[in-house]
C-alpha cells in the first residue's frame, strides 16, 4: 500500500526579494530519498522580486488586459521549444 504525507516546512520567515529560497527550505526540513518538494509559485515569485504593489495597479488597465470574449471556448496553448524562463517575451500559438 502506498501512502502520501503532506508536511509543511515550518519556521519559514517572510520571504523577501533576493532571499535564497532553497537555502531557507533546506535549513528547516530534512529530506529522505524519494521525497518530493512542492513549492507554491507565490513564494518563488516573492524571492525573485516579481511582486506588484496594489497602489500602483490601475483597474482600468488591468481590466483591458483580461477582457476576453464570452463564452470562452477550450483552447490549447503551446510555446516554442526555444522558450526559457526569462523576462523576454515568448512566442506562443493558440489553437481552439
Oligomer: single chain
Q: Please write the string of helix (H) and strand (E) elements.
A: HHHEE
- How large is the radius of gyration? 19 Å
Helix content: 10-25%
Measured distance between first and last alpha carbons:
41 Å
What structural class results from the helix and strand content?
alpha+beta
What is the strand content? 5-15%
Give the overall pLDDT as a whole number: 74
Low-confidence stretches: 83-96
Which descriptor suits the 3D outline?
elongated
Biggest sheet, in brief? 2 strands, antiparallel
Strand and helix map with partners:
Layout: H1 21-26, H2 41-48, H3 59-66, E1 76-79, E2 92-95
Antiparallel strand pairs: 1-2
Word description of this protein:
- With 96 residues, this protein is α+β, with helices and mostly antiparallel strands.
- Helices cover 23% and strands 8% of the residues.
- It has a two-stranded antiparallel sheet.
- It starts with 20 loop residues before the first helix and ends with a strand.
- Mean pLDDT is 74; it is low at 83-96.
How would you describe this structure in keywords?
elongated, 96 residues, alpha+beta, 8% strand, two-stranded antiparallel sheet
Short overview:
This protein is an alpha+beta fold and 96 residues long. The chain has helices spanning 21-26, 41-48, 59-66; strands spanning 76-79, 92-95. It has 3 helices and 2 strands.
